[in-house]
Amino acid sequence: MDLILEQWARERPDLDCSPMGVIGRITQLQREVHLAQRATFARHGLDAPSFDVLAALRRAGEPYQLTPTALMRTALVTSGAITQRLDRLEERGLITRTRSEADGRAVVVTLTPAGRRALDAALPDHLDTERRLLAGLSDDELAELAGLLRRFLVTLGRLPQRP
């Protein structure tokens, strides 16, 4: 990225290319994170979308249930995408979908004991992967980076939401 910025400064000194330094590095980091997470989840027979759904259900607490709409909001995906994820997880016995007792028209997604075991086995490995990725930063730097990234997301309209 430094070389690219130097080249643009030489070729187009009339332009401020500094945004490339931030966005380009975020893009590079995203790829590194994606590859590391993919390898981690694969060791547990999962992928990132499956992990996200299982984790959302586990975080919901007993009885580990959410509606597909709540899962869609958590994962920030379309209804078609969440349906595909739920289909795959249900086929593997990691979740169930049943009609809501409160509203027979609504569907409730429930984490099965097998789904809980799968998530609970993958989570420590996932956290170790994230710690390894962040190992080059001090605690103060991590806190500052987390705050800056949060502010960045908020300015893009990604306000914190409750599922």
Automatic annotation (TrEMBL):
Transmembrane stretches, start-end: none
The protein, known as: DNA-binding transcriptional regulator, MarR family
GO biological-process terms attached to the record: response to stress
Keyword DNA-binding: yes
Keyword Methyltransferase: no
Source organism of the structure: Geodermatophilus saharensis
PANTHER family according to UniProt: TRANSCRIPTIONAL REGULATOR, MARR FAMILY, TRANSCRIPTIONAL REGULATORY PROTEIN
Highest taxon listed in the record's lineage: Bacteria
InterPro entries the record matches: HTH_MarR-typ, MarR/SlyA-like, WH-like_DNA-bd_sf, WH_DNA-bd_sf
Annotated HTH marR-type domain residues: 1-154
A Gene Ontology molecular function term of the record: DNA-binding transcription factor activity
Keywords, comma-separated and alphabetical: DNA-binding
